[in-house]
Amino acid sequence: MAAAFSASVVLKPSSVHRNPRLTAFFKLSGSYAGRSVKPLKTVGDFGFGIACAASNSAAESAAVTAFHGDCYVVGDNIDTDQIIPAEYLTLVPSKPDEYEKLGSYALIGLPSSYRTRFIEPGAAKTKYSIVIAGDNFGCGSSREHAPVALGASGVAAVVAESYARIFFRNSVATGEVYPLESEARLCEECRTGDVVTVELSENDNKLINHTTGKEYKLKPIGDAGPVIEAGGIFAYARKTGMISSRDA
Fold first, then answer.
1. Residue ranges of domains in the chain, CATH in brackets
2. 248 residues of the chain, pLDDT tens digit each
3. Is the dihedral of CA 238, 11, 76, 209 positive or negative?
4. C-alpha distance from residue 79 to each of 11, 24, 49, 62, 168 (Å)
């Protein structure tokens, strides 16, 4: 049955652009599979978080989410056209073959000054599971394809000094990558090819650079974490009962 349902994340800055504090909440309306959507009961200011319809269990809160692998380092103001050029926006991510193809073009718009290719010629996936960036990552035109392309390429998380709001919103909406914010300027602390681990827990988020032996604190992502872990807004809404699952 076709869905008559819309969902979005609204992010409102409450301070200056750099390291903004964001009030975030879902806007859900309509029906899904002929059933009404349950409204959210709480909206709050979580810094870099999302107001959720249901709280996690104690066991889920205590769990640690970790990503490990080589990192790829970029600088400031990496815009969405560098992440995925407009000519590839005709690809439809819901089609598996086009999703894979979209991933093969991730970060293909970077200038030639980046001598190490993010994806080797002829490869469908990147060997870099974590992208480390400077200020204002994901700026430019709004396109959901940007985080989708990164996720399809094999990236699990982006760790940036700050984000364009639209990229952060689309990352949460699609559930493709974790948009994490660093306290230090990691794009000057790490180098492409360094082996790193990102650990996320209720009270302590950090990036460990195993190549240099240094450890860095990451800012909390708040309740956006469960939304991304679920696979995005629609998956999270089904998981928490905000919309009903399709009948078997």
1. 70-240 (3.20.19.10)
2. 333 333 444 433 332 233 333 333 334 333 323 333 333 322 222 233 333 333 444 444 457 899 999 999 999 999 999 999 999 999 999 999 999 999 999 999 999 999 999 999 989 999 999 999 999 999 999 999 999 999 999 999 999 999 999 999 999 999 999 999 999 999 999 999 999 999 999 889 999 999 999 999 999 998 899 999 999 999 999 998 888 776 44
3. negative
4. 19, 22, 23, 35, 13
> With contact defined as beta carbons under 8 Å apart, do 146 and 138 qualify?
yes
Please give the full DSSP string across 91-133, using - where no structure is assigned. Answer: S-TTSHHHHHHHHHTTTTTS-TT--S-SS-TT-SS-SEEEEE-
Pairing outcome for strands 195-200 and 128-132:
unpaired
For residue 155 the two structure tokens come to 């990236």
Alpha-carbon distance 227 to 244, whole Å? Answer: 16
Q: What's the pTM? A: 0.76
Tokens of 30: 């309509």
